Each structure stands twice: as structure tokens, then as C-alpha cells.
UniProtKB/TrEMBL annotation:
Keywords: Protein kinase inhibitor. It comes from the Bacteria. Belongs to the UPF0098 family. This is YbhB/YbcL family Raf kinase inhibitor-like protein. The keyword NAD does not apply. InterPro entries: PEBP, PEBP-like_sf, YbhB_YbcL/LppC-like. PANTHER family: PEBP (PHOSPHATIDYLETHANOLAMINE-BINDING PROTEIN) FAMILY PROTEIN, UNCHARACTERIZED PROTEIN YBCL-RELATED.
Length: 187
């Protein structure tokens, strides 16, 4: 594919991990459990099928987690692109109401409401739930950070909620957290 001049021009412009919700003081807590995916290693490349609709199938990857803290009654998943060149990280996945006892979310569990019982999908990019990676061609690799927060209360967020509403409701109620990073590059 030909080089994208916009991607090249923005190559050194990235929002960085310090702008992820993970870095917000009101959401800090010990990393007391782990998050993984059978589809890719932590820090590894995410397979093609998980890319956004323009490039792939927009399928959300399966996720597994170890036992969260015993005081956790709900999990919230936020997936952000730490390498977006535009102001703030792009949200690529948003889900709340996750039962900690589930132990995981199956492949494609975040692409349509009702696929996983009790899970409410929030707005991720122009979609709800999962909005697969679509980095700017020639911009270099992007890091997609899956951030899973264990909460000591139920948030009761309605479907189609936005990231700001989730963060506001979560503040002061995070009792543990876990993260996983996957990468994608559009050459």
C-alpha cells in the first residue's frame, strides 16, 4: 500500500498512556487480578479479525480474568488507543455491569447488546460496545489498552452510556484492576 502522508506527518504525535483512564487518580487501585486473551499475548499484535469494519470483521476478542477482589460486585471494561494522535485516547470498547464471577467474555461478546447476560454496552467511537482498531495508515503501531476495573458497588448504567458517565460513577469505588495491551498497525 502507498504511504499515507497524514500518517507520516502525525507519526510522532501520540496522546500516550498517561491520558488513559487507567492513569486517573480517582480510578487508581491495586492490580490484584489479571486480564488475558487467548487471541494475543500481552503487548502482542491483535489478529486481523479484531480490526474495525473498514479493515476487518470488527469482532471483539475473547477475554479472561483471574478472580477479582472479594468485595467486587461489578466489573467495567474500557479499551482505549494510547497512540491516537488527536487530543485524547480513542475509546474502542466500553462495557459495564459485568459479573466478576463470569471469568471472561467470549469472542464477539462486546459487539452486540444481549450477547452476554447483564452486560451493558457503552459508546465506543461511532458504535456501542466494540469498535475495532483502525489506526491511521503509516502512523506506526498503536497500543490498545484493555482496562478492567473491579468495583465495590453496582453502577446501574443504562445501555449506550458514555465514557464520562462511567468514569464519574466509578470514582472512589475501584477495589482492584487489571490490564492487557494489544497492538495493531496499518502499513
Amino acid at each position: 500500500m502507498p504511504v499515507n502522508p497524514l500518517g507520516v506527518a502525525l507519526r510522532n504525535k501520540r496522546v500516550g498512556h498517561e491520558k488513559l483512564v487507567w492513569a486517573r487518580p480517582e480510578l487508581r487501585a491495586p492490580e490484584t487480578f489479571t486480564l488475558s486473551s487467548p487471541a494475543f499475548e500481552d503487548g502482542g499484535a491483535m489478529p486481523e479479525q479484531y480490526r474495525g469494519r473498514l479493515f476487518g470483521h470488527n469482532t471483539s476478542p475473547a477475554l479472561d480474568w483471574t478472580t477479582p477482589p472479594g468485595t467486587a460486585v461489578e466489573l467495567v471494561l474500557i479499551v482505549e488507543d494510547a497512540d491516537s494522535p488527536f487530543g485524547n485516547p480513542n475509546t474502542h470498547g466500553l462495557a459495564a455491569g459485568i459479573d466478576p464471577a463470569l471469568g471472561g467474555i467470549p469472542v464477539d461478546g462486546l459487539t452486540e447488546a444481549g450477547r452476554v447476560t447483564g452486560v451493558e454496552l457503552g459508546k465506543a467511537g461511532p458504535r456501542h460496545g466494540w469498535f475495532g482498531p483502525m489506526p491511521i495508515r503509516s502512523h506506526g503501531p498503536h497500543s490498545y489498552v484493555f482496562q478492567l476495573f473491579a468495583l465495590d458497588r453496582r453502577l446501574g448504567l443504562p445501555g449506550r452510556f458514555k465514557l464520562g458517565a462511567a468514569v464519574e460513577a466509578m470514582a472512589g469505588h475501584v477495589v482492584g484492576r487489571a490490564k492487557l495491551e494489544g497492538t495493531r498497525e496499518n502499513r
